[in-house]
């Protein structure tokens, strides 16, 4: 299994968990929870594959991809924590998925011949896509528009791996490190309330 | 006209009716109603065709496809029932569209060479797509996340036709029966309040 | 630079401004404003390119496309007017983008071999797409479903340029005029409260 596929599957798993957790919080039934798990887990990859012309998306062409979000949905349904701790877990798993997907998205875009900045943007879109779809479907303010920075760490992670690969650094630890940096920055942003300047009052 | 195209057009028609009915309920003008009719009628097919790489989507390449949702929009604008009965009609026509689209989506995916489980998932996504777009645009809770099962009958219908075709059963009645089973289960779910287990209270 | 690319870039710029203005109004930080600027500026073109099979979308394959919405976002962040005048500016820039995108969308669809009516529909979808994505993400009622006509002027502009091109009129002024007509009609509709018949009370 290639590095990009491996990181992709882990990313699908953790994003699916966030979708299922949101479903638990909204008291959906097991099928509704499963739908949110599938949509959040696979959404970012679908958008990425459609944009770079890699259709049908990886998750549709290979059934093993589908078992991952289904497993995540079932695990969450049976082992979810109390409602009070759901939001915190959503943030943690979402940050993990963000890091993994921004890197795999950028890598796949590079493999498809996109120029570096474009690959970084595809990585960013892959990273934020699943969470945005999850939030729009469940009626929450999209995470990418909330106070703590979200797209910025994703763009940073995608950009780091693009720069490294352009410089010829193809070792697996490069991608994993970039993903970890993105996840760490996102988690720090949540913990410390990092946000950026807002427009001056008019 | 092939079976898949015929069922597709009927599915577009009934889904477009649900979009127009929602527009009537929200007191939109005839153009807003027409937009919802077009988006709901064609949305599922667009998503399906983009995912399996069949671009441009059938409805864009063939103008006859476009006349169907336009007709549905106009018919609904002039012949709509009282507001009190709109929601019930939305459910009925939506269930019909769900059955038709989950089957045509699965058939088209098989024709494009997707493996069976992937084709069943494409069918499910085709079936639920139009209704979800309609609900997100009009500010309703997406039908796929409400109490009564929605994606499950779609997956069942898609799965049935995929299994049958894999076994060599290509007769038209197979697809029509799978669509009818999906529609029936969805209608029964609404009538009897069928839903699935919800997470245990935390 | 071709006409279609030039009009595209101007359209991206003005649509990105509307996204950034909505971000200012919602008091988002500079990154949230930038996200809305990028999504609104590029959204219509992404949908267009995906539908006609022109992947990866122009904006992803050419980094110069990306600098336009980023510039729009920064300009708006620093030079935005008082909150009370934001909505009026959103309407004006959005009408400009609508005109430009409905025309460039139709032109690109024709260039990709779509039949005339289909090209007009692609143009309409390109025109309305960015604004709809912007509104759904920021929790506003989608502009295409509000009282003043929106999709109709887009369809008219797209239709005009399709008819002209089919008749062999390829001069640049044709496209520019069609865009201007769409924009003008949309602005007049807002100013005069033009709307269409609503369904009879039930």
From TrEMBL, chains A, B, C:
Q: Which PANTHER family match?
A: INNER MEMBRANE PROTEIN, UPF0126 INNER MEMBRANE PROTEIN YADS-RELATED
Subcellular location per the Swiss-Prot or TrEMBL entry:
Cell membrane
Q: What is this protein called?
A: Trimeric intracellular cation channel family protein
> Topology versus the membrane, per the UniProt entry?
Multi-pass membrane protein
Q: What is its main location?
A: membrane
Record-annotated membrane-spanning stretches: 6-24, 31-51, 63-80, 92-111, 117-137, 149-167, 173-190
Q: Which domain of life is it from?
A: Bacteria
Keyword annotations of the record: Cell membrane, Membrane, Transmembrane, Transmembrane helix
Q: Which family does it belong to?
A: Belongs to the UPF0126 family.
Tell me where in this chain the Glycine transporter domain is found.
Answer: 7-80, 92-165
- Cite the InterPro entries for this sequence: Gly_transporter
């Amino acid at each position: 299994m290639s590095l990009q596929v491996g990181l992709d599957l882990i990313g699908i798993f953790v994003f699916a968990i966030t979708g299922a957790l949101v479903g638990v919080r909204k008291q959906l039934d097991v099928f509704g929870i499963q739908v949110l798990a599938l949509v959040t887990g696979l959404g970012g990859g679908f958008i990425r594959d459609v944009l770079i012309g890699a259709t049908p998306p990886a998750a549709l062409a290979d059934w093993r991809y589908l078992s991952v979000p289904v497993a995540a949905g079932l695990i969450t349904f049976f082992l979810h924590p109390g409602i009070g701790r759901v939001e915190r877990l959503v943030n943690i798993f979402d940050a993990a998925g963000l890091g993994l997907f921004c890197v795999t998205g950028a890598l796949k875009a590079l493999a498809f011949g996109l120029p570096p900045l474009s690959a970084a943007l595809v990585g960013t879109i892959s990273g934020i896509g699943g969470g945005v779809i999850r939030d729009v479907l469940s009626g929450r303010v999209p995470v990418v528009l909330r106070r703590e920075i979200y797209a910025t760490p994703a763009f940073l992670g995608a950009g780091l791996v693009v720069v490294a690969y352009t410089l010829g650094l193809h070792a697996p630890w490069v991608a994993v490190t970039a993903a970890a940096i993105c996840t760490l920055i996102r988690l720090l942003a949540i913990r410390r309330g990092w946000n950026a300047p807002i427009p001056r009052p008019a």
